[in-house]
Amino acid sequence: MFRPTILMLIVTFAFSSQAAALTQAELDTWHALWTSQGLEDYGYQFQRSCHCFGESIREAVVRVESGGVIYATDTQTGLSLEDTLFPSVEELFSELQSAVDRPAAFLSAEFDAALGYPIRVSIDWDVTIADEETFYVTSSLSADLDVPACDYTNDIACAAPVIDLLREANGWFDSFLDFNEDFVVDAADREFLIQEVLQTNYGDSNLDGVFNSSDFVQVFRSGEFEDSLTANSSWATGDWNGDFEFSSSDLVKAFQAGAYQSDSTGETRPVPEPHLPCAAWLSFGVVLFTRRLRCYV
């Protein structure tokens, strides 16, 4: 998981050891090079590091059209971020100009040699104030970079990367991923996302809103059931309990949730009582799968 303090230490060291303070003449030169590109519509990757949290420190693909930001997409999850938290290149230049004018206690910047836009920025506005330093890293600017965000209110299938990411949650705080709003990101947020936000349940690997035989077809065709590879499974390939594997324990997890639906009736299939041995649970799932798989191949 991204830790702002670690990144800030790395960036601070890099700037302090390699980069000289930015002068007005240098800023003007780089701004002129950027302006000469004539780019009003473009996308680029952006990440801010500061003593802050939430969406503002997520790495994003920022899309700019007619000079203004129209959306920001989280690169890790594909989800939409608040676009007002992310600047256009022109706004980055404006912040650099403010830092030169004030002047900031420390200001350093590096620029893309071909296009002229800032690729690394470090600003310490006042050495007498703690925790107000800001760092930016940008890259991959292109007129063609366009990555619209996942809208899982209309297509829950695009939420699979978020479900997988939350397997790593171990109690850290990130308001962007705190789906149940209890100020802790953990397994409870993964369950809340699956059952409350997406309105589906364990077993629904293809995220069509139903746990049925088509999910068994998908996960068993992946070939990862109790294979010899370590931590190679995802939600889409059968890791429903969040342990990075597809095994009989995932079948137990899915059937315990009681959401399996028969294709013929569309009704929830009765679930074995929890006291049955794991082998019975597994057999139940595999029988359902193999019986239905013949209809698909």
What does this 3D model show about the protein?
The protein is α+β, with helices and mostly antiparallel strands and 297 residues long. It has 2 domains: 4-142, no CATH class; 156-293, no CATH class. The protein has 8 helices and 7 strands. It has a 7-stranded antiparallel β-sheet with strand order 4-3-2-1-7-6-5. Strand 5 (106-111) and strand 6 form a beta hairpin. Helix 6 crosses helix 8 (278-293). The longest helix is centred in the C-terminal third of the chain and has 16 residues, at 278-293. The radius of gyration is 24 Å and the shape is elongated. The chain starts with a helix and ends with a helix. Mean pLDDT is 84; it is low at 1-18, 269-281 and 289-297.
Summarize the entry for a quick read.
The protein is α+β, with helices and mostly antiparallel strands and about 300 residues long.
Summarize the helices and strands and which ones pair or pack:
Elements: H1 4-18, H2 24-36, E1 42-50, E2 60-65, E3 68-74, E4 80-81, H3 89-101, E5 106-111, E6 118-124, E7 134-142, H4 160-165, H5 187-197, H6 213-221, H7 248-256, H8 278-293
Antiparallel strand pairs: 1-2, 1-7, 2-3, 3-4, 5-6, 6-7
Helix pairs in contact: 6-8, 7-8
Strand portion, in percent?
15-25%
Poorly predicted residue ranges:
1-18, 269-281, 289-297
- Report the helical percentage: 25-40%
* Form type: elongated
Mean pLDDT: 84
Question: Which structural class do you get from the secondary structure elements?
Answer: alpha+beta
Let me know the largest β-sheet.
7 strands, antiparallel
